[in-house]
What we know:
By secondary structure, the protein is of the alpha/beta class. It is built from 11 helices and 12 strands. The protein has helices spanning 15-27, 54-64, 82-95, 110-115, 124-143, 185-193, 204-220, 241-250, 255-261, 267-279, 295-309; strands at 2-7, 32-35, 69-72, 75-76, 100-105, 150-153, 158-162, 176-179, 196-200, 228-237, 263-265, 284-289. The chain has an 8-stranded parallel beta barrel, surrounded by 9 helices. Strands 6-7 form a two-stranded antiparallel ribbon.
Amino acid sequence: MRLRIFIEPQQGASYDTQLAAAKATEDLGFDGFFRSDHFLKMGDVDGLPGPTDAWVTLAGLARETSHVRLGTLMTAATFRHPGPLAVAVAQVDRMSGGRVEFGFGAGWYEDEHTAYGIPFPASARERFDRYEEQLDVITGLWATPVGETFRYAGRHYRFSEGPALPKPQQAPRPPVLIGGTGRTRTPRLAAAHADEYNVPFASVEDTAAAFDRVRAAVKAAGRSEPMRYSAAQVVCCGRDDSEVERRAAAIGRAPEELRRNGLAGSPAQIVDKLGRFTEIGAERMYLQVLDLSDLDHLELIASQVSRQLQ
C-alpha cells in the first residue's frame, strides 16, 4: 500500500503552510500530496486566514516540488465550468511535469455556495446530471486529438468547434479519481470514467461493500482497463498514548473516537488497521492530516508506519 497525505486547508491554512506540508510530504517519501476543494470552513474553527483556491494552490506547488504526486479530493463540479476547468487541470499538469491527479465530485456543501454566490442545483439529481456531463466534457476535451475540435450537446453544457487545448502532459490524460459510497450511479460513473475509485471516511466493512459495487459495475461495463481502489482516513499517530491524546486534542477529537472512525494509535496499531484495508483491495490510503503545524507527525508516520509497509 502507498500512503498519500491529504489536507483540508479550508479549516485554516495559508499557501505557505500548505507549501511547507507539501515539501515535507515529498522529502519524507510519501506518494502524493492532495488537498480538498472547499471555500468555507466546517465546524468550530475560525478558518483563518481564509480559503485558498485548490487549482491556484496546486499550480504553485507544482513549481515548488519535483516528484510528489499532486491532486484534489475532490474538486466540486458545481464550482467551475468544465471547459475552463479542463484547461486549468491540463495547465497544472504541464507545470508539474505530469504529476497531477484529478479527483472530481458532484459537490455537496450548500453553505459554501451560498457564502460565495455560487449557484447550487436544488436537487441531487440535477447535481449528478451536471456532474456526469462534466465528466464527459473534461475527458472528451483531453481525448480530442490535436488539430481536431470538440463538440458536445448535453442538457446542461454545449460545445461547438472547441479547440480542446491545451493538452495535459500525461497521456492520454491525468488519472481521474471518483469517490463516494453511492450504490448505483457512483459505481456506474466510476466504471465509465475513473482510473481510481476512493471511499472516504468509512469503516473497513463499508469500504469493502463499496469496492464490490464498483467491481461489479466495472465487470458489467465490460471494461478492460484496471481500476485502482483507495480509501481516505483521518490519521492520529503517536509513539505512546500521551502523544496520541495530545494530537487528538489539537484537532478537537477524542482518541477512542478516532480509533473507531480513523487511523489512530501507535504506529503498530495503524499498520494493523491499514492491513485490513489492504486485505479488501485498497492500494492507496489518503491520510487526512488536520494539524498542519505538526510536521513531526508526518515524520513519525514516514519513519514508523511507511517503513513497515515496504
